[in-house]
Amino acid sequence: MAEAMISPLLSCPIVGGGSNPEVRISEISPEISKRVTEKFGIKNYTNMEELVEGTDMIVVAVKPQNVDALFSQLAPVLSSQKKKPMVLSICAGVPISKFARNLNCEKIVRSMPNTPSMIQQGMTVWSKNPVGVFTDDEITLCKNFLACFGSEVMVSDEKFIDMATSISGSGPAYVFMLVESMVDTAVHMGFSREIAQKLVLQTILGSTLYAIDTKEHPTVLKNSVTSPAGTTASAMYELERGRFKTVISDAVWACYRRSLEMGEQDSNVGPGRTSLPSSEFNDFDYRR
Questions:
Q1: Annotated region Disordered: where (predicted)?
Q2: Could you give the CA distance from residue 137 to residue 120 in angstroms, rounded to a whole number?
Q3: H or E element that contains 190
Q4: Do 136 and 11 have their domain in common?
């Protein structure tokens, strides 16, 4: 994910078209380091002090199981900085508190991007440490940085990051499985795989853009395609009989629970579990 984010970042106005700020990386794999430095013309730093010196923001893009090793390297370097940079995490399931505690730094931002970020069509949800003191310029930097990869939404509470993980974070996988299912069925019917994929992908893209443009409720849009006793009505009946919406809902809740587990939080939530209080969802706030 980190490597894939470099290209849109370098083409973004805040980097490529701004005052030419420097992008630095630290990659321990010689193979990846060689590929990235040759492809993008940026330097790989093996010395953590040189990497951090003078930076405005550090983006942590390691796998969740590797964050402890990173903390041991980064913490002493951050402690020696007169002006501590912000630390922006894209590590799934790792809470802000863990970063703040292990790095002894309060300027922590946690985000959840998704794979379409690689083509600047992503959806990133992010939240800042509530006890951290951030300047307006720092908030703007975070916002502009994440906007390089598509749309971004800042939420008022970190709890929405775990929720967003199950919606926008893992959501592309749900869509890809739907695509796979429809394409395979079209091939079974007799279409070539190439044509089947074109039909399915354009249908999903067009339907999504249409929903965005009309701003209509999904039920209204669905009903507009469904004629009485028609072909779509027959398809809808089978989807309902197969508990389509319930299966999707269960998958999203399972993803949410796993995100909570990874952050060592109580995951006994959702249907059939200890229900979340209704007030849990009443204080949602965001800034575009």
A1: 264-288
A2: 23
A3: none
A4: yes
Is 67 annotated as a binding-site member?
A: no
Q: How confident is the model at residue 147 (pLDDT cuts 50, 70, 90)?
A: very high
| Same domain, yes or no: 190 and 225 | yes
pLDDT per residue as tens digits for the range 248-262 = 999 999 999 999 998
Tell me the longest C-alpha to C-alpha distance in the chain: 71
Are residues 142 and 209 both part of a single domain?
no
3-class DSSP state for residue 231? helix
Parent domain of 201:
171-242
Distance, CA of 220 to chain centre: 28
Cα-trace Rg, the chain: 22
* Per-chain mean pLDDT for the chain: 89
Report how many domains make up the chain.
Answer: 2
62 annotated among ligand-binding-site residues: yes
Calculate the CA 41 to chain-centre distance. 26
Residue 274 DSSP symbol: S
pLDDT at position 21, please? Answer: 57
64 labelled ligand-binding: yes
- H or E stretch covering 287: strand 286-287
The three-state DSSP-derived secondary structure of 115-180 is HHHHHCCEEEEEEECCCCCCCHHHHHHHHHHHHCCEEEEEECCCHHHHHHHHHHHCHHHHHHHHHH
Report whether 235 belongs to an annotated binding site: no
Do residues 97 and 29 both lie within one domain? yes
Q: Are residues 151 and 46 in the same domain?
A: yes
Q: What distance in Å separates the CA atoms of residue 21 and residue 11, rounded to the nearest whole number?
A: 12
**Token representation of residue 174:** 């749900």
**d(Cα 121, Cα 105) in Å, to the nearest integer?**
31
